[in-house]
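Batch manifest, entry 17 of 40.
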Amino acid sequence: MPVNQGRYTAVAIILHWAIAAAIIANLILGWWMEDAIAAPDSRARAIDVFQIHKSLGLTILALSLLRLLWRWSHPAPAMPADMPQWERRIALTTHWAFYALMIGIPLAGWLYVSVQWRGGTPLNVPTLWFGLFEVPHLFSLHEAAPATRETLAGPLAGAHGILAQAMAVLLGLHVAAALKHQFVNRDEVLAHMIPALEKTEVVKPAGFLARRITLQTGFTLIIVAMIALLVALLQTGKSSSNAEQDGTGISSSPQSHWVINPQKSRILFTGENAGAPFAGEFKRWRADIRFNPDNPEKSFITATIETGSAATGIDLHEETLPQSEWFDVANHPLAKVRSTSIRRVDSNTYLVDGILDIKGNDVVLSGFKLQTNDEKLSIIGQVTIDRRHVNLGLESDPDGEWVSLQIPVRLELEAFRK
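Output type: structure tokens
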């Protein structure tokens, strides 16, 4: 049977302060998000912070379970011999209450986000652990009947909030008790978790003042570190930006009469998410251009776009867009384009009309400008796609409250004669 140590082990101390920093940061983030998600000017940042909040919560859960296992095999240091029995009972109760909350709060939050429901609307928001991988929903709750999800969402969100408030109160009491032991009782309790502090039996006024200043400096450094951590977390939300163009995946059909220049050919799209603009690009697509300047009526253009290649540089978008509610890549891996007419405007300028097929829904393309000379061809055009017309994101956002209903898509293509 392990015996009590004079102070906590290094592993226990590291886990203690890591969990404490994460809890304080997450409490602040949670309170900020509650109001920010409802304000148009802060909604986009709140969505990014929400992913950080979930990531920290899951990290707290994992570290708390690890800390609990470590605690079972490495008992806590003995309490001071002169500590009253009632105070011992309160300390022990507080200790285990912390474990219950450190595990219960993240679990309640995980269950809530697994339900995928907010207010009266279903959600489609994956949980991305610091953008590295997607965390699965618990018990497939996101696939339950809408009535079940709506019934569960309110109580789970409420429980998560109440437990978080209890954690804040308990944390305040814990800090107050630690300071009491250090400055009133002058025992070794705080030194168990901060090895730099040493118990001093007799303290002269000057020494006491110096010791107090040192302790205050230490706590100030801890607070500054926590604020710096919080600021860093708030800044890690990725701002929407144009996806980098590397030309990968853009090609011509082997039978094409024109060969695409991938460095100067792009299919771009833009929109707004929670009031913040985003810009993206389809990275993989190919086109078959059979164009004869002397016979435009007999010419044609076709293209296929891999919907799973849509990229915005924002992890949340790129995890969500391939899902069934959006592009449904599993069943509709390609969007298809075909020209319906090519007509001459002047000696080297033509207008191209066509059809874009997304998930079996046709979008009319009109007035794309094609210009050519003997060796080079370019096509430039834009169409605005209404998400309601092509069934994109209508389950969780049918009214465009989060993602704009109108999505402009722009083609910039350059090709050379084969």
